Amino acid sequence: MSKSFHAITAALTLLASPSLGAELIVTVAGLQSSEGRVACFLTGADGEGLLTVPAESHGTFCVFEDVWPGTYSVTAFHDLNGNRVNDAEPLGNTVEPFGTSSQNSSNAFTMSIHGACILITLNSTPAQN
User: Fold this and answer.
1) In whole angstroms, what separates CA 86 from the centre of its chain?
2) Which of 113, 33, 117, 42 is nearest to 79 (CA)?
3) Largest Cα span, the chain
């Protein structure tokens, strides 16, 4: 068989192969209203990603697709005014509810080849001075 046949076969096999990444489902609970959006920020050794989704007071889901196995953390906040910024007071205290993944003290969790589901509960009252 020719080299071109093998090259075409290899290319088609790669195109038909499923992704090696999996789905990460982040459930964000503790929203006080359905105003604004919820932002989920994923960080890990392979990079970072940001999703924003409409806020739902009964619970909101951020679904990251094609996440490779490894160690990650997620921070979420309820962007009440929709400006895509976790607003803070002049002294740096956040004024919008936020939360982090918290399986351990570093807020990190392990993503397997089968995917993961994590729960983040937002603080009910932002930090106040």
Assistant:
1) 15
2) 33
3) 75
Task: Write down the pTM of the prediction.
Answer: 0.76
From residue 17, alpha-carbon distances to 11, 20, 21 in Å are: 10, 9, 12
Q: Which distant-in-sequence residues (6+ apart) come within 8 Å of 120 by Cβ? A: 26, 27, 28, 29, 40, 74, 76, 99, 100, 101, 102
CA 24 to chain centre: 7
Q: What is the pLDDT of residues 42-89, one digit of tens each?
A: 999 777 899 999 999 888 999 999 999 999 999 999 999 888 888 888
Helices and strands per DSSP (H, E), number in the chain: 1, 8
CB 57 within 8 A of CB 48: no
